[in-house]
Each structure stands twice: as structure tokens, then as C-alpha cells.
Amino acid sequence: MAERELWTVPLGRLEYGEALELQRNIARDRIAGTIPQDVLLLLEHPPVVTLGRGSKEQNLVASPEFLKSKGVELFEVERGGDVTFHGPGQLVGYPIIDLKRHREDLHWYLRNSEEALINTLADYGIPGERNPAYTGVWTRGKKIASIGVHARDWVTWHGFALNVTTDLSFFDLIIPCGIDGVVMTSIAREVGSDEISPQDVRDRVSAKFAEAFDLTAVVTSRSTLLETVA
Length: 230
Description:
Blueprint: E1 5-13, H1 16-32, E2 38-44, E3 48-51, H2 64-69, E4 73-76, E5 83-86, E6 90-96, H3 106-122, E7 129-131, E8 134-139, E9 142-152, E10 155-163, H4 187-191, H5 198-212, E11 216-219, H6 222-228
Parallel strand pairs: 1-2, 1-11, 3-4
Antiparallel strand pairs: 2-6, 3-5, 6-10, 7-8, 8-9, 9-10
Helix pairs in contact: 3-5
């Protein structure tokens, strides 16, 4: 086994509540040292709106009742940031990284996460950008990826959401990340094609994320990961 690996775990489509419990449990075990390597969960959620610690009531445009009527779940969570949407066609990544093995600096972690996504977009000919006022990744002035994290004992969880073939009309239900006037976009919209392979995007993100943190990406399964701490 390599000394410093990133165990990437493809999970397919997973309910938000189940994924939240899973990442909290993995973070707990990473803090305890029973999971010996950093982990990156890669998945897709059914439609869900999440409210971070910085959420403001006015940034949830649709009422909870309306969201429920449209089959959109609503969660309040411990991550930083405001309101965001997850749904089909979006690659969600939950990096569970022990920053004590890297650098005990959340700003550094966020910039490296942005860099991994910017480098992924470059593979598709999309110029990824940072916006100095906000966390996340942009292209041509439009937002294409959101990032919101939480950390305890320098172990991170929550993470990023990259719009791949996402139905962008869902973002009309919220003011994304609390940014007035923000325009959301996706890889599909930027390249002008819906024929984007989710697996290809997932593999590229995995490789770029490992590279950004000087790790070796190793694909593993959920069952194998959980067996580590059984």
C-alpha cells in the first residue's frame, strides 16, 4: 500500500440523509485513526436543497411546502456557506481529509479543492476561474461548482458539487449560495452537448483531487471501506 492514498469511493445515486450519515461516520473514524487514509466519496443525489450555517431565510425562494410538493428534500447541515441545490446530473464529492497530514489551514484546503475542479474543467476546454469574493468555481462569470465544508480536529467533510448535466432550472428555487444575480451553468451547457460521460467526469475529478493534495488515487468500494473499521 502506498504511504499516502486517496481512497475514492463511487456511490452512484444516494439519498442525501444516508450520505450525510455515512460521511459523518467516516469522518469520526478518520479522526480516530481507524481509517488510515484520506477518503473521497463521489456520488449523485436526488433533488435536495441544503442550508449551511450561513444561510439566510430570504435565500430560500421556494417554501419548504413547495419543495416537498416537487419532491425536493430540505436539510439544515453543519457545513459553512448558504443555501445550495444538489440533484441528478451533478457530481457531488465529499472529501474526508485529515489536514494534520497536509496543512492545518482551511483556506489552503478550499483553494486546493477549487484548483482540482479548475483542472478538471480544463480537460473539457472550459476556463475555470475563482471569484475573489466567494468560494467555488466559475467560468466566464457564471458559477459551475459550489463548495461548502465543515471540519473537526482538522478532518474535513461535506465538500463540492460540480454541475455536469444538471437541470439548472432547479436553482430558481433558491438564491444559490446567497449570491444575488448569480447565473449557474454546467459542463454540458458550456460545451454545448448533453453527451457528457458522468464516469469520465468522476474519474477526472478523482485524479485531479488526488494530484492537488499530493496523494495517489485508489478506487475502493463502500463495503471495503467499512470493512476497514469493522
